Amino acid sequence: MTYYADMSSDSMWWFTGEPLCSIGWLNPAYEYPVDTLSPGVWDVLSVRLSAARRFLCHRGLHECEYCWQNTCSGALLFPSVDLQKLFIAPPMISHYIEAHSYFPPEEFVEAVLSCPQHDSDEYCDLLEDMLEGRPDASNFLEQEMLSRAARIRRNDYLSSLRASGDKWAQ
Ligand SMILES: [Zn+2]
After folding, report:
1. Which of 26, 58, 154, 170 is 20 to 30 A from 99 via CA?
2. Residue 63: inside a domain, yes or no?
3. Separation of 26 CA from ligand 1 center, angstroms?
4. Global pTM?
């Protein structure tokens, strides 16, 4: 997997630079912080990470180059608590933490734990606010808008079915 140093604003995203902040793009050529998260934190963090939305704008599949037992594609996005950074992490970050004792920065852990649910409007609004006015992020935002509009239409449709008593919409 392409290496990006933790807390750097490099990434192979459609846009780079601040507020993007790379986390967990590990590569065996570089050392990474090793430690164990407290079980209480990991229990919640692992659930949040696996429920996170995967943005599939990255091309290709990443393989874990430490054990070759895990692959992932795409990226996860979490606004920092102070909304100054937009953390971008590979979905495989859970595997790195669990199988290879990767210890992510505390600020990232806090961001994941306090992030609104990824299918919520609140989350979409946060991303839009953070990337507003970025011409290089417009492709990404356009896609977001489209998928968000589709989701709202789907929810409206399901609500109307529910209102009409359609049992398949329950
Ligand atoms: Zn591995």
Report:
1. 58
2. yes
3. 10
4. 0.83
